Fold:
Amino acid sequence: MPQSTQLNAVLSVHEANPDSTRTGLSVEDIRRDFAENLFFAQGRHPATATRNDLYMALAYTVRDRLLDRGVHCIEAYQHHNVKFVAYLSAEFLIGPRLGTNLHSLGIYEATREALKTFGIALEDLLDHEEEPGLGSGGLGRLAACYLESLASLQVPAIGYGIRYEFGIFDQLIRDGWQVETSDKWLRLGNPWEIARPERSYDVPFGGRTEPYWDEQGRY
Structure:
């Protein structure tokens, strides 16, 4: 059997059982998927799990449900040869994703109840999330609003941007002075992204730098 045929057969079985543990929306489905992701994705037992382990396990649990809908949605669009809107922006301030995705899936309260059975407060994990540092101001928020509007109108669209390693700086006040520190938003990992190294491209930059001193003798 060709590989594509085998994969389609697996997907057909999955579609025939939409309420499986990895895609179901019930409290019990979310509870079991969360426990499995904590064990298999994070390699942690509940007794030794950190708050970041718990957050990552929950994010993967939510991502399972998003991917289930996203992959089949793209498949349907391709089958009907639907055109996509490609939105290009240097910034995308999309905001925290966990709470937004829970609301979009309609499982906010179900997730709260599922976590409560483990003695975990959903609010603690929502507060733990790092906001994506993919911009620094109005341009990024406007781009995100455009994509949210397109989604609300059910217009097929995808945003193309830059995956910044560091976002807008964090501001601290020390001895009455503002101090800027790097926004290391990726330091604990990003469960929402899927790396595609085979589709990456190197973008070279040319030119050179020349040192000089200004009129005040400053380098």
